[in-house]
Write a structure and sequence with these properties.
CATH superfamily of the largest domain in chain A: Aldehyde Dehydrogenase, Chain A, domain 1
Shape of chain A: globular
Radius of gyration of chain A: 25 Å
Distance between the termini of chain A: 54 Å
Oligomer: homodimer
Strand content of chain A: 15-25%
Low-confidence stretches of chain A: none
CATH topology of the largest domain in chain A: Aldehyde Dehydrogenase, Chain A, domain 1
Number of strands of chain A: 23
Helix content of chain A: 25-40%
Mean pLDDT of chain A: 97
Number of helices of chain A: 15
CATH architecture of the largest domain in chain A: 3-Layer(aba) Sandwich
Number of domains of chain A: 2
Chain lengths: 527, 527
């Protein structure tokens, strides 16, 4: 039933060898479907098709792009339960979560459709001519964002829909006007196949150039490496581990031509518990964070892996309460056997470091299933944390490390010792915030998003979202991979000087036929 | 009179050894002033000062930044003739050109002052809370651009003022809120010293944190390499040669943390002469291009180094006329002996390639001076051009290569064989443009700026300018190094979630106290 051949420009293309299968991580059992790793010839064919499609797709109308994106969303919704069930089977994530994720995925596609249809996202800037200017007349110059070329997207394991084949990277690249080549994640090839079929059908139905979308399989690293190094690839988007992201960066550095490689490599998302709130409501905080730490078996880039506080009686109560909640948190199936093994290995290694103290491990483990996450909380002193880089590593899973400072000055030192982060969170009473100005400034320097009295998990898909922080959280903190801003990873400005009005892109024509917001002679206007 | 010590956070710091001097390129004679190459200790001191300054400068008020930038401009204007004379002596460029460049430099500083004072450049995006939303309430999320950290700027040789110590890179980085460390160009250290003194004085006068500006000397590569590799450096800006730019890229790839390195590495700036205009007014076109090719001894990134046309009687007349104009073009002093030698060597090598024909070389050479540029025009067939990559290399100087195609199809092939470019120019009659849709699309894919019936030299400093094209023209085509857009190289978005209004940056506060344009719930408004 599932066609496991590579999808190239709307066609299934057969290839010899390289067959692999999907596994249900909760049982370790093989799922249906044979998937075929692509070879060099297919990669060549795929990128030729993408490059050819780019010539047409880069200047296609915003309305046509919007229709394409909405049709993808419609087709994903139409698959419905089959898609949800397969994603659940391949990821071990619960039905409720995957159902929500499908909604998020189609919502994202529609949001980008709205963005391109409205049209102002191209950031049109017009400086009109000043023929009378002395000593030199000024030319008419008009600039807007234009797509960069074929984008290679790597499916992420932890969001088999929302950060995978039709996820935010694909949606934003297609919105930008870039053909997309997806390297399917080998942990959910069946889900990927169903989504790729939906995108291909939508492309055909809406008259897109064939090479606007392709998807290649591989359960190793060869196809991904070749895609990143291919000279026809013009940008790369990846969400995953630090090691995975850095491997792609290194491959891209071997290229003849430089291209943007956006890798979101996660972070430990520090949470600062300020004293007044900590002493006022330690149990409430503990309950909130027990939930955030263990949500989705902790398999979020924004999982709160680090909790920072100054020692106090409130902190002791917080620890006791958090420990109690974690101890009875039921285990959950992790995404893959490899992720489960890494979680066990890395959490074990860190727990073996000098100076660390285990607070608690969950004892509610489902013995009927495999790859079960064991929620864990540990504790170190601020001094030990600063001295040992190992404590700052991301442990992907339901893990959080509590760092106890003697005073505010030491808390500030901990913050200044941190690497770049996707998020940072402050739990505080309103009144105590102004007392921690330096601390908040130091924290802001380290992060892409700073949250007050919330949890970092749950990343809203909206215009204001920033999901990208200083290295090593992402390869380039100047961009986001969530929200409409994600489109700017895949565009470059082009300026037209003294160009013939009727031959300009509609966005830049004098009459503003698309009725978009533009910056004309330094004023924002629709005129 | 000129203090040639390194300028660190407002102080002259002495260092042993490494003395070098400036040379007048028109005579080869040494100019006054001893300049001292920095050492590792000074580099460390400089970046520590810049990092400390960043904590203050990143959140300084827009008004304070604007005053700082304008004070720099005032102080440069106040030095006036002394600065102009020194820059002329060090660069060999004529007084008129340097006077104009000083105006451009101060104009740039004032333009960025206006930009930060007006304030909307931060691209504030506000998505307000939806507490009633189901299944999950939406948080209040507010995002704006914030500075990235200390920026290392390399002075460029060909614009000793406008792309050097207080040039566009420095102005845009300071406008962004980033401290700047300049690596002075060794060809104009005296000019650099005078400008650095002006910036330091302006920083003190306007109460900026001391480390907001420093400048280090070196007549070799060591200081630049250390600056690029230093972990406290958060971005790099460079304008120069492909080899220089790529050397910095490679150094940055050895870093532990990834940072943006914007290198503008020049291009050959193709000019397409379409048939109708070529046959209507070949002599006018020739006169226009003789001027553009030889302006400033051809030492512009946007110099038209490649002219493409279809063979015709009009083209023959164009060549005859261009040749005649070039033959009597007076020689000019090139920026340095090294640049002159490279020009002689590379133009000689290309002229020795099979299939090339010399059209003409200037015979009006000033024998009283050294390092004199010899304007040169050569000719090849489209076939030969496509077959030999050497013909596509940038020859920095008054050189242009004419490529003759048999027909429009072959002209298109030449365009598709080109590397990425800063600019592309089309000379055409209005009526013939629609006949060349595919050709114009192919050309647009290759370039950052496309010009109709003008010359690529002369880069307007304005909001709509794009000075940056696909690799190898620049390291990242998504940014510009000229115009107000240059500021976006040095900023990253930060999002505040559910943050306390009074503690938000003013740009994001509910009442919009700075009265800037913001995108609130997907609508542009000042409310």
């Amino acid at each position: 039933m599932i066609n496991g051949n590579n999808v190239i420009a709307g066609n299934y293309v057969e290839v010899d060898g390289g067959v692999f299968n999907a596994t249900d991580p909760s049982t370790g059992k093989q799922l249906t479907g044979d998937f075929h790793a692509a070879d060099t010839l297919l990669i060549e064919k795929t990128l030729n098709a993408a490059t050819a499609a780019f010539k047409v797709y880069r200047i296609i109308s915003p309305a046509a792009k919007a229709t394409f994106l909405r049709t993808i969303a419609d087709k994903l919704t139409a698959i419905g339960d089959d898609l949800i069930n397969r994603a659940v089977a391949e990821s071990g994530l619960p039905v409720g979560r995957i159902t929500g994720e499908l909604g998020r995925t189609t919502g994202q596609l529609r949001l980008f459709a709205d963005l391109v249809e409205e049209g102002s996202w191209v950031d049109a800037v017009i400086d009109t001519a000043q023929p009378e200017r002395t000593p030199i007349p000024r030319s008419d110059i008009r600039r807007m964002f234009s797509p960069i070329g074929p984008v290679v997207v790597f499916g992420a394991s932890n969001f088999p829909l929302a950060f995978s084949v039709a996820g935010g990277d694909t949606a934003s690249a297609l919105a930008a006007g870039c053909p997309v080549v997806v390297k399917a994640h080998p942990a959910h090839p069946g889900t990927s196949a169903m989504v790729a079929a939906a995108i291909s059908a939508a492309a055909i139905e809406t008259g897109m150039p064939a090479g606007v979308f392709s998807m290649l399989y591989d359960n190793g690293y060869n196809v991904g490496a070749q895609l990143v190094k291919h000279e026809q690839t013009k940008a790369v988007a990846f969400t995953g581990s630090y090691n995975g992201g850095m491997a792609l960066i290194k491959l891209a550095q071997e290229r003849k031509s430089l291209i943007p490689v956006f890798t979101e490599m996660g972070s430990i998302n520090p949470v600062i518990l300020l004293p007044a709130i900590l002493n006022a409501e330690p149990e409430t905080l503990a309950a909130k964070y027990a939930g955030s730490i263990t949500l989705g078996a902790g398999q979020f880039c924004t999982n709160p892996g680090l909790i920072l506080a100054i020692k106090s009686e409130g902190l002791d109560r917080f620890v006791t309460s958090l420990g109690g909640a974690i101890e009875i948190t039921p285990s959950a199936t992790m995404l893959t056997a490899g992720i489960w093994k890494n979680y066990e290995k890395l959490s074990g290694e860190i727990l073996a470091e000098p100076g660390i103290e285990l607070v608690t491990k969950s004892t509610a483990i489902d013995k009927e299933k495999v790859n079960q996450s064991v929620a864990t909380i540990a504790k170190v002193s601020a001094e030990a944390f600063i001295a040992n880089k190992k404590f700052g590593e991301e442990v992907f899973g339901p893990w959080s490390l509590l760092v106890v400072a003697d005073d505010a000055a030491q808390l500030q030192q901990v913050i200044e010792s941190l690497d770049g982060q996707l998020t940072a969170t402050v739990m505080a009473e309103k009144e105590e915030l102004p007392l921690y100005g330096d601390l908040l400034n130091a924290l802001t320097e380290k992060t892409g998003r700073i949250i007050l009295n919330g949890v970092p998990t749950g990343v809203e898909v909206c215009a204001a979202m920033q999901h990208g922080g200083p290295f090593p959280a992402t390869s380039d903190s100047r961009f986001t991979s969530v929200g409409t801003g994600a489109v700017y990873r895949f565009v470059r400005p082009i300026a037209w000087q003294d160009w013939e009005d009727s031959l300009l892109p509609p966005e830049l024509q004098q009459a503003n036929p698309l009725n978009i917001w533009r910056q004309v002679n330094n004023k924002w206007t629709k005129e």
